[in-house]
Specification:
Elements (H helix, E strand, L loop, with lengths): L1 E2 L2 E2 L5 H23 L1 H31 L22 H12 L16 E6 L2 E6 L7 E6 L5 E5 L1
Antiparallel strand pairs: 1-2, 3-4, 4-5, 5-6
Length: 155
């Protein structure tokens, strides 16, 4: 555009409106994708913990097979069992968590997740390690103390 014989730089109104429209379309596409990142991050935490827990259980079982004993309390078949024998309770499952992951157990023994997002519940031959932070879907690591089966479950 020329005013007084000089050229002035800048955008026309049409160019600005087109740029705003393009940015609006990109935002409409991108924002829903970023909203689900929290849920995906929580799922990644639970899956990573499941993988670490399953590996730890198998390592302790391999130690029992190789030595005929283990550095932690195990069942007659060599799987980490916590403090006692089945049926397991919350305290036994807290001990299993600590033995297998060598880290502090979740702060809330019970079926409801605590401030760190984790809860522990023991019943029969099963330990349930519950992960549910921020009202996200329930994620469980289910461990059978008799068979060593470690499963990841989402509800």
């Amino acid at each position: 555009m020329k005013i007084d014989g000089k050229r002035h730089g800048g955008f026309t109104l049409i160019e600005v409106v087109i740029v705003i429209a393009i940015l609006g379309v990109l935002a409409a596409i991108a924002i829903p994708r970023f909203i689900t990142l929290d849920d995906e991050a929580h799922d990644a935490v639970a899956r990573a913990t499941h993988g670490g827990f399953a590996s730890g259980v198998n390592i302790l079982h391999a130690e029992w097979q190789a030595r005929g004993s283990s550095s932690v309390t195990v069942s007659p078949t060599g799987w980490p069992i916590g403090a006692g024998t089945p049926p397991v309770n919350n305290a036994d499952c807290v001990a299993v968590w600590t033995d297998v992951l060598t880290s502090p157990s979740p702060r809330n023994p019970g079926f409801v997740a605590g401030a760190d997002g984790w809860g522990i519940f023991g019943a029969g031959n099963l330990c349930f390690f519950v992960y549910q932070p921020d009202n996200t879907p329930w994620r469980f690591i289910r461990y059978n103390v008799n068979t060593g089966l470690v499963e990841y479950i989402t509800l």
